[in-house]
Amino acid sequence: QVQLIESGGGLVQAGGSLRLSCTSSGLIFSRAAMAWFRQAPGREREFVASISQRSQTIVYADCVKDRFSISRDNAKNAVALQMNSLTPEATAVYFCAADLPMFDWYASRTPSDSDFWGQGTQVTVSS
Fold this sequence. Notes:
- It is a single chain.
- With 127 residues, this protein is mostly beta strands.
- The protein is 0% helix and 48% strand.
- The chain is built from no helices and eleven strands.
- The strands form two sheets. Strands 2, 4, 5, 6, 9, 10 and 11 form a seven-stranded mixed beta sheet that branches.
- A hairpin with a 6-residue loop joins strand 5 and strand 6 (58-60).
């Protein structure tokens, strides 16, 4: 069974930072493109950032570019999302997702790309 477990969420003031982590099991992690998505109440799940198998491709949503950073450690079966300069608009449940792509350079861009999902971790940014 594939498991993706997010951690690191919490409450932070606007302008602050958080680092989310996702650890995986039951998955050949190095074969997976990894991504972070988020979902706020009443909104659809949206793409945040993704990273290909060997980090050769990294993609960010326009709204988080230059503030968020995604990275992975294949030896630890883990992917992280460093979030800086947070705003209240970032308040959401953040989900880790894994995609088994056709191409090793591909990084997920939509929820439909993903084959496996974590349970999510809450991020709340206060004003």
